Amino acid sequence: MPENPEKAGVMGRQIGYARVSTDDLHGKAQRAALEAVPCDQIFFDQESGANRDRPELARALKVVRVGDTLVVTVWSAWADR
Questions:
Q1: What is the extent of the structural domain holding 23?
Q2: Is 57 a residue whose pLDDT tops 70?
Q3: What is the pTM of this model?
Q4: Does some domain include residue 4?
Q5: Fewest CB within a 10 Å sphere: which of 12, 25, 39, 57?
């Protein structure tokens, strides 16, 4: 069983993810919110709402490690997956 990162004194990273459709005007606000956290890395999908592919979400999930926090600005971006 992996060691608990909190008990080991390991500080996790903040990994940010945002998604907006091409006609959504909230992209700048989401990015600003993630930068304010502050996130160590930010992944940002800007796709048509009809496109269910989330390549940047897939990349974000590949870099998240035990002890990290995935910060999502809008939960519908996660739920649409």
A1: 14-79
A2: yes
A3: 0.74
A4: no
A5: 25
Instruction: Confirm whether 29 is domain-assigned.
Output: yes
Among candidate residues 37, 32, 45, the one with its CA nearest the CA of residue 15: 37
Domain presence at residue 40: yes
CATH number, domain containing residue 71: 3.40.50.1390
- Tens of pLDDT, residue by residue over 36-51, are 999 999 999 887 666 6
Per-residue b or e along 11-32, where b marks 16 or more CB atoms closer than 10 Å to that residue's CB: eeebbbbbbbbeeeeebeebbe
Give a yes or no: residue 1 inside a domain.
no
CA dihedral 5, 6, 12, 17 (to 10 degrees): 100
